[in-house]
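Appendix B. Raw example, untouched.
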Amino acid sequence: MSNAVTIRQGKLRERKLRLVRRGIRFYGLANGVICTEGLDADDVWRRLHDDAGKSDPRYFGYDGARARFQKFFPNGFHSEGFASQERTFKLELKKKLDSTAPLEQALEVGGLGESVLAVYRSNLLSPYEVIPMQNLLRGPNADSFIQAAARFATNATSSTLLELDRVLKPHDCAKWTIATYLPFLWQPESHMFLKPEATKDFAVRVGHSFASVYESRLDFDVYASLLNLADKTASELIDLAPRDQIDIQSFIWIVGYYREDREAVYP
């Protein structure tokens, strides 16, 4: 493209991606071919990744994701099977956190380390993730971590995530599972819990750019992409009436992790 300026580049498996500006418009190119265009650079870049993702052999779109979910839970989010396997224990964790370390107290009150640690002991996390949290939540930085997590829950920004990262990193706990766990339980209507491998797999299957945006370090662009993936998924499933991000996170986990040879079908 003549008179075009490349402003961003990337790679999605074997496809080279470029975002270029020409005049006031932006164009997304995959291997030199224009795939999408528009007036908003971030939107064009996201749509370019989404379109490029459809070429992955694992892609089956949201229709395929829905079919896979309903293979295990044919009656959807509001069935007894879904509640018993995926939802009830998460609501119980939330209830426990709200009663022992409510968000309002966590913002200002200290001494909540043991209460928060009890909530971290769940099958949402591996033992290898919980063990270093014991040292953190029983140490001198417990209050700093809990308050940082609470601030991120009430105001999710790059700066509040950076503050959370600074507290977690010295304890080798700067992981997405650890960082998103409390905000998700405090406010499941707006926050998402990130299990990276299952979520990346899901993103590939539905052709969402999260699969290529993801980084293991705590970066706000990754979290913003996760929320976009959650919003897109919720809109695609509106007829199934997901209630909150607990349902959406469970849907992503089921599609990305459940295997036919190890899971039964739950009514």
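End of appendix B.
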